[in-house]
Specification:
mainly alpha; two-stranded antiparallel ribbon; 28 helices; 3% strand
Length: 646
Amino acid sequence: MGARTGAIPGNRRAELTESHGVAPSSAKAGCTFMPVAPSTARLVQRLAGWAMLALLWHHANQYAWMAEDAFINFRVIDHALHGLGPNWNPGERVQAYTSVAWMALSIPVTALTHDPIGATWLLSMALCAWLLGMFWLASGRLTWWWMLAVLIWVSSRSVRDYLCSGLESPLVMAATATLVVLSARERTRSPERQAICMAMALALCALVRHDLLPLLAPLAVDRMWRDLSTSTSPARQTAWRLLRCSLLGAWPLLAWSLWAWLYYGSPLPNTASAKIVTGWDAHRQALHYFAYMQTFDPWGCGAMAMSAVAIWWSGSRLLWPVLAGLGLYAAYLLAIGGDYMAGRFMVGPITLCMCAWALSWRDVPGTRPPVGWLQQQSPRTATAASLATLCVLGAATLNVRSDVDTAVHLPLFVHGITDERLFHVQQTDLHTLQTSGVSSRWRQQGRLMGELLKEEPTRGPFILCNIGMAGYFAPSQAVIIDPLALADRFLAGLPPAAHTELRVGHMERPIPREYMLSRLSGTNQFSDPLLAAYYDDVQLVTTGPLLAPARLQAIARLNLGTYRARLQRWQPDDAGGRLLVAAGATPNRARYCLGSGGELMGTAQAQGQLTVVTLPQLSHQPPQAAAPADAPKTPATPPPGRSSGG
């Protein structure tokens, strides 16, 4: 390393070029800078940091809301804290939540706060602070570059909508940014230990969401390969070392998969089986999703394209891993048909691109723009750029109304895709939660189930779409059957109803009457041998003794696909009223999920016959000035009738 002869103290160009192995002589001839006093630089840095914190605080409060699916997690958390296990219905081991890591964080925080909504808000704010730190490390502690990257990232509508939504999205963004930063860290351990740590980080990201693997695996594998490969070792030997380190580092994912396989009977969440089905045009639906995103979040899509071009222009080695991750993730979305929540599946790719863009300028010691230009800015220029970036982008970001947060007005549903936050903005936004609690017809349905069970404890099971809010505000003993199969292992294995128009993420299943009779009587009532055997195995897995040999054999049959092919060929037979049908259903309409609120049906067994009663459809009413006497004092107080001790 050459001596720093003639380097002016505080000269960022000399410091950065030397840290990258470039001699200070490569600077422009005769270029001198007027350094800014260290105290002034520190003051500007602190002011910029506080301004960024205030901006994110504004976003977390103005755009905070609770998604309907978040209340599914809240019910599972409540059951786990009251000794009923991390399940949807008491006594049924079904994984109705998607993110293992999000639940692992939410349960202890909820136990401390006794408020699941407040707990998710606190977690979201903590993860926002963590994200700021990751962007700070990625930007090389260059204040104005850090501010520019964060402000472009937070200007994405997808990021704003899901920064504090009760879902695992902030943890997805934090895990993505952390892995990007780890992939650029200097080697501080032996190559094998470094590779094992990277594999462990990737495994933890998979516990946040399994679908982060195609997005982040290329980045992790590229770094592991660079750590393990040497000029003298052949590629085959490096590949074997990489495989060994990957298996050693993947122990968190392997340990969870083994526990989930033993407890739930499957290493994957039940929501994956419910949403990912065959027999429909997923590729076409995914193309609709991509087209919708260009209109829904043009800033986020443009930021991803811009960052890819900037990474290519800088000559950074991050280019191909990032492009490979985006390509694999796009292929995954094509395979499953995208998502019905606009923007939810895009927060990971946007965070990956923006964090890699912030990192790319210092990833190589070259002098091509913008690398060379960034490296030779004086502290005075950087200070001016920081203030200009904060004023321009901060004003543009803050000047957005959170209730109509879009420049183009899209229909509420486009090819089954919806602006989920706009749908709930008057029901579960932060202002409504603070003043009157959750304001939704589904909360009223939960209260109605509680009243019915108080009058008749043996009432039910209840059949209900949109199970989140209604399920959380219903008593713990309420057994709720979900036609969309998010929380029902038996229905998740059945093919979707053929006569209904399939919507991505909402694959409605037919409900055989014999299934409801079997649940009410406690004995297998199926006449079809295939369904009878499948029902027995599902019951063993979800309710049988944990380590019983028969249960372990049933788990093996279900995971090896013993019934999958035959169930996909099974055709529901309407003859003789073998299927439950909601009032008002037609051959071209859904059987149970009628309208936006769905039909709430109660079932009972009278003299060996199944009685289906369609309960009153509740219309949405604006919140009253005075809450009813039985209303909770805080928005997240467990509803009346919910078990307090399991």
